[in-house]
């Protein structure tokens, strides 16, 4: 009988010792978590707190009179950090939604600029560079939309700069001093009509200087013209070349490439 009571006494003593150690370990975890309550390193601190929470679960109970109080202390410290993180993320989401709207507006500006063919190329590129600077000063948009938005913006910018490599510069005296532009061919022809310039004079200035000119050849090489207006450009410049080669301006209603009908006058 005496041995039974001795074993029971030893058991309770060991259990009390274990619970006292558990209390010490839990108190240490409470102190560690409380030190992190003001941290704004959201990712690293979140990972560390999750690690402390896992450790807490592995620790056995502390003495009954302290166990619940320790848990409330530990949980409250964790909640302070995660609530601050939640507020910060909500604010960040709001800012990114605002950035999304700003970037969409810049994409629209760049796309409109790329679609215009009546604007001086130097002016277009100057305006586009300012748009690019505005883009750099805007923070990130939401992750799921940020990359697609950037690709749209970049494509519009590339279109403007590519047009500059294909543009034709016309001296202002050929357009009555009204224009001094670098324009793609479709925009150039529209301004020629408005400015009253002779197409053959414009073609003579715009034609390449080097190499003999062949009748019927395009004054602008097709390789320098790309986009939806390539075919139209070739045919229009071909008509201008025919005028230059023949030295005659076709009568109204007759294209330069067709021959006059034969017959008695």
List keywords for this structure.
single chain; 265 residues; 8 helices; 2 strands; rod-shaped
Account of the protein in words:
- This protein is mostly helical and 265 residues long.
- It has three domains: 7-89; 97-166; 169-246, no CATH class.
- It is built from eight helices and two strands.
- The protein has helices at 2-35, 42-58, 64-115, 121-136, 143-166, 185-195, 199-206, 230-246, and strands spanning 168-169, 182-183.
- The protein starts with a helix and ends in a 19-residue tail after the last helix.
If helices are DSSP runs of H or I spanning 4 or more residues, what is the number of helices?
A: 8
By helix and strand content, what is the structural category?
mainly alpha
Order of helices and strands: HHHHHEEHHH
Number of strands: 2
Average pLDDT value? 73
Distance between the termini: 148 Å
Order of strands, widest sheet = 1-2
Q: What is the rounded Rg?
A: 39 Å
Taking the sheet with the most strands, its summary is: 2 strands, antiparallel
Number of domains: 3
Please estimate the helix content: 55-70%
> Low-confidence spans: pLDDT under 50, at least 5 residues?
197-265
The fraction of residues in strands falls at under 5%
Q: Which oligomeric state applies?
A: single chain
Form type: rod-shaped
Which helices and strands, and how do they pair?
Layout: H1 2-35, H2 42-58, H3 64-115, H4 121-136, H5 143-166, E1 168-169, E2 182-183, H6 185-195, H7 199-206, H8 230-246
Helix pairs in contact: 1-3, 3-4, 3-5, 4-5, 7-8
């Amino acid at each position: 009988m005496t041995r039974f009571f001795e074993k029971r006494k030893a058991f309770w003593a060991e259990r009390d010792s274990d619970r006292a150690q558990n209390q010490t370990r839990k108190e240490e975890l409470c102190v560690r978590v409380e030190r992190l309550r003001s941290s704004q390193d959201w990712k690293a601190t979140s990972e560390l707190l999750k690690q402390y929470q896992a450790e807490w679960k592995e620790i056995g109970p502390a003495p009954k009179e302290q166990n619940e109080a320790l848990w409330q202390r530990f949980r409250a410290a964790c909640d302070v950090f995660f609530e601050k993180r939640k507020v910060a993320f909500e604010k960040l989401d709001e800012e990114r939604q605002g950035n999304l709207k700003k970037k969409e507006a810049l994409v629209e500006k760049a796309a409109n600029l790329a679609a215009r063919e009546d604007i001086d190329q130097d002016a277009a590129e100057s305006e586009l560079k300012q748009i690019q600077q505005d883009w750099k000063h805007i923070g990130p948009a939401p992750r799921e939309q940020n990359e697609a938005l950037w690709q749209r913006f970049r494509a519009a910018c590339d279109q403007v700069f590519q047009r500059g490599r294909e543009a034709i510069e016309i001296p202002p005296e050929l357009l009555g001093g009204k224009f001094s532009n670098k324009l793609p061919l479709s925009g150039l022809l529209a301004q020629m009509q408005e400015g009253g310039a002779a197409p053959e004079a414009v073609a003579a200035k715009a034609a390449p200087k080097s190499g003999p000119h062949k009748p019927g050849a395009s004054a602008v090489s097709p390789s320098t013209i790309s986009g939806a207006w390539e075919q139209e450009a070739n045919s229009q410049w071909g008509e201008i070349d025919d005028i230059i080669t023949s030295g005659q301006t076709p009568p109204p209603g007759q294209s330069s490439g067709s021959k006059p009908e034969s017959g008695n006058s």
